[in-house]
Amino acid sequence: MKKLFALLLATVMLLSAASALAQTKLTVWCWDPAFNIYAMEEAKKVYAQINPDVEIEVIETLSGDCETRQTTALSSGQTDTLPDIVLMQDNSGRRFLDTFPGAYFPMDGLVDYDNFATYKIDKFTSGGKRYAVPFDNGVAATFVRTDYLEAAGFTLADLTDITWDRFIEIGLKVKEATGNYMLVTQAGYADFVSMMTQSADFWFFDDEGHPNINTNPAVRAMVETIVKLHDSGIVKEAVDWSEYIASFNNGSAGSTIQGCWIIGSIVLAKDQAGKWGVTNIPRLDIESGTNYSSQGGSSWVVPASSKNPEAAVDFLSKTFGASVEFYQTILQSSGAIATYLPAADGPAYSEPHPFFNGQKVFEDLMNYSSKVPLVKYGVYNYEARDEIVNAIEAIFNGASIDTALNDAQSAIEFIME
Amino acid sequence: MTALRAPRPKGGLERKTARKGWLFILPAVFLILVLSFYPMIQAFLLSLQKGSGNQLSYGGFSNYQRLPKDNTYVTALGNTFFYLIVQVPIMLVLALILAVMLNDEKLMGRGIYRTLIFLPCATSLVSCSMIFLQLFSNNGLLNSIMLKLGWVSEPIPFLTNALYARLVIVVTMLWRWTGYNMVFYLAGLQNIDHQIYEAARIDGATAFHQFTKITVPLLRPIILFTTVLSTNGTLQLFDEVRIMTAGGPGIGTATLSWYIYRITFESVPRFGYAAAMAFTIFIMVAILAFIQMKVGDRQ
User: Fold this and answer.
1) B1 falls in which pLDDT band (50, 70, 90)?
2) Do A95 and B268 touch (CB under 8 A)?
3) What are A148-189's pLDDT values in tens digits?
4) For an interface test with A, which of B49, B50, B52, B54 has the most A Cβ atoms less than 10 Å from its Cβ?
5) Does B100 touch chain A (CB under 8 A)?
6) Is residue A19 assigned to a domain?
7) Which residues 6+ apart lie within 8 Å of B228 measured at CB?
């Protein structure tokens, strides 16, 4: 009896050990069910064909939470709380790689980087090593209700290749004709601060990485434009993200200017199908001003603390880094524009989009994407942006632009000391 | 030993009880040492280190020297004192008035009133902040009603105007904490003898005089206690600000605790600098509590 029991026990243990060997489990943190999580779930399906022994669990984690949790875990040394794969905002890449050296798993030689857009790879390169599989594009565009434009006597073409001043003129007429706001953004205009600056081929730092704010022509033009937008009354300033999304989903605002990933949220309002159009963004009225920029965009990184970093990289490189078919699928459902270059040749990119009244949206966005000025991001991107947001708030309250920008310049210099 | 204070006989039994007494508080002492004092010392050591992320090195008092030059810190300090100076007095006076009103035995259903006023205190700070966010946001309940009734033509920017936003946060804190302090006062009022009021009434004292000359002086220790507690709480104000405005517009509603969180978790992390800030709060709480004790406790 005892022997039988021991035999049984041994078998059970052996079996469980065997299954543990076969089953590698990878956990993933990312946000946005309509976009990143959806893409990850699709990637899971693709990889199940390649390596069925790997189990992948996606845990929805807001972008901000991903960052605070990583900061907490890395600074306290409790890295076992980290997942195997995390999605990271491109703007945060250098911050994590540079402030926590050794905390992420380098992917050189494991991922075919030749197939990705260079500007994406640069954002996650530190000390000559590359640390991320690039994901979505983040090219910015104007998403607008064409029925609102028509009500005021305009077409999508009238909104294309224009300056911000012209945008405000049109916006005032749209507001008059429809009673709705022309544009919605989150209060503080933080998204516009980066988007407009980059559109004019400038960034908050110069090539040596020094803060470049108070003598930066693009920053000045950007601040002036935001003040004009604020004063014009055509902009709905949403208090938080949900109010922002609600404002175009319920029609109280006629457009949003944002990274193309916002498509996932726009198409949620099914009753508005056919009433939307996409065009390039307004430009700053300075010499280097263009109608193209990017906003957001993110990449996949693997914390060095992962128990199976090679498995995690293998999963990423065979899905996000190798499958044109995969990108076709996620493009159609969520508008995830790839930075994986071969994906652009797939047929889905030239298909007309029914929600956008048959416009070949993805082709247009890919076209804009190739014209986005390449700027050099730094470690303190968000800090610099926030100081400019503070400066704009001060200007709204009566400060002069010169004083406010000088203050922002010295504030960011102080932070970087 | 003088005759007045005879030496206490130190019998074996008494020593034994004393030893047992120590044994009983030992776990608590141990927990406080490990969970409170040890982190405090570690935090102080951390506050002497500069650098970001996991690249820290000792830099003496450079973090402390940096503080007065940091505009965000100075603004957050100013905001924190704004909340303190505006909110604490209003809340305590309101709590006191409510307590006196609800202490009236002739009042019908005072149990229900007491419960209702105390109830906000049972909500978590996060849900309380979410509710007020819903009330005051641009398309929130309050603005919707006022727009419908035609009282305003544009929504009032409760949360996007710095002054309004600060006041909304004050209102949120009032709603959340007034009942809490009221309960302390109600408890204190139970200890005041009714005969004192009766005597005062016979002597012709008005209700106002009874309040200022009897109630307030006799409640002094409790008023002191609630003042210290509220000051301490307000200096560490975080949840409401983080949830309702995220410190904005700009840094218009930022508090010290919010800035500490930001430096630690949201921006390029500088733990040493954040620890130094936390220590300044610690020192301020200590100083304010000391002043309040001096002013409030005459004995």
Assistant:
1) very low
2) yes
3) 999 999 999 999 999 999 999 999 999 999 999 999 999 889
4) B54
5) no
6) no
7) B288, B289, B292, B293
Which structural domain, as residue segments, surrounds residue A57? 24-138+297-345
Which band of pLDDT confidence, cut at 50, 70 and 90, is reported for residue A314? very high
Bond prior to B249 in cis (omega within 30° of 0):
yes
CB contact under 8 A, B53 and A75: yes
Query: How many whole angstroms separate alpha carbon B47 and alpha carbon B64?
Result: 8
Q: Which of A181, A205, A247, A390 to mutate to test the interface with B (most CBs of B within 10 A)?
A: A390
Of B53, B70, B133, the CB nearest to A100: B53
Residue B299 pLDDT more than 90? no
Cβ-in-10-Å burial (0-12, 13-18, 19+) of A401 comes to: middle
Which has the higher per-residue pLDDT, B184 or A8? B184
Query: Are A50 and A109 found together in one domain?
Result: yes
Whether A159 and A279 share a structural domain: yes
The rounded Cα B138 to chain-centroid distance in angstroms is 29
- Residue ranges per domain, chain B? 70-296
Q: Say which amino acid occupies A313.
A: V
List of chain B residues whose C-beta atoms are within 8 Å of the C-beta of residue A75: 53-54, 269, 271
Cβ pair B269:A75 closer than 8 A: yes
Chain B CB contacts of A239 below 8 Å: 133, 137-138, 159-160
ipTM of model: 0.70
Q: What is the CATH number of the domain that holds A38?
A: 3.40.190.10
**Nearest CA-CA partner of B270 in B72, B41, B80:** B72
Whole-angstrom CA distances from A2 to A5, A6, A7, A8, A14 are 5, 6, 9, 10, 18
What mean pLDDT, rounded, does chain B reach?
A: 87
A78 has a chain B CB within 8 A of its CB: no
Whether residue A277 is found in the same domain as residue A180: yes
This prediction has a pTM of: 0.77
Q: Are residues A312 and A237 in the same domain?
A: no
- Given a cut of 80, is residue A130 above it in pLDDT? yes
pLDDT tens digits for range B144-193: 899 889 888 888 888 888 889 999 999 999 999 999 999 999 999 988 88
Confidence at residue B11, expressed as pLDDT on a 0 to 100 scale: 67
Say which residue, A115 or A302, is predicted with more confidence.
A302
How many distinct structural domains can be found in chain A?
2
Closest-CA residue of B relative to A98 is: B53
Question: A73 pLDDT exceeds 80?
Answer: yes
What average pLDDT does range A135-145 have in this prediction?
A: 91
Residue A142 pLDDT: 97
A361 in any annotated domain: no
**Residues 53-92 of chain B whose Cβ lies under 8 A from any Cβ of chain A:** 53-55, 66, 69-72
Order of strands across the sheet with A298-301?
A54-60, A24-30, A85-89, A298-301, A132-134
- Domain at B70-296: CATH architecture: Orthogonal Bundle (1.10)
**For testing contact with chain B, the best of A104, A204, A239, A244 (most B CBs within 10 A):** A239
Contact A98 B53 (CB under 8 A): yes
Give the distance from CA A250 to its chain's centroid: 23
% residues pLDDT > 70 (chain B): 95
User: What percentage of chain A reaches a pLDDT higher than 70?
Assistant: 95
Q: Is residue A11 part of a domain?
A: no
Q: Give residue B277's region: left, alpha or beta (phi > 0; psi -120 to 50).
A: alpha
